[in-house]
Amino acid sequence: MKFLFCKLKNKTVTAVARTRYILSDVSGEGYIDTAIKILLAVVLGALLLAGLYALFGETVLPTLTQRIKEMFNYGG
């Protein structure tokens, strides 16, 4: 019986130590990593929006306005 209690005590101490180690672990993602990811996403999003604005501003919108004017031109 004494052996069973010692075994149970050892397992409990091991589980508590493992839990304490997991909860106090400081490794992982830091503030600098997160800031770099956010900055990269903002820059890529701005480049994508600039590209779309250039595409729609020079290619799509002039032909679209021309087609709308031709569609509503009843006289001719």
TrEMBL record:
The keyword Transmembrane applies. It comes from the Bacteria. Keywords: Membrane, Transmembrane, Transmembrane helix. The chain crosses the membrane at residues 38-56. InterPro entries: DUF6133 (IPR045765). This is DUF4244 domain-containing protein.
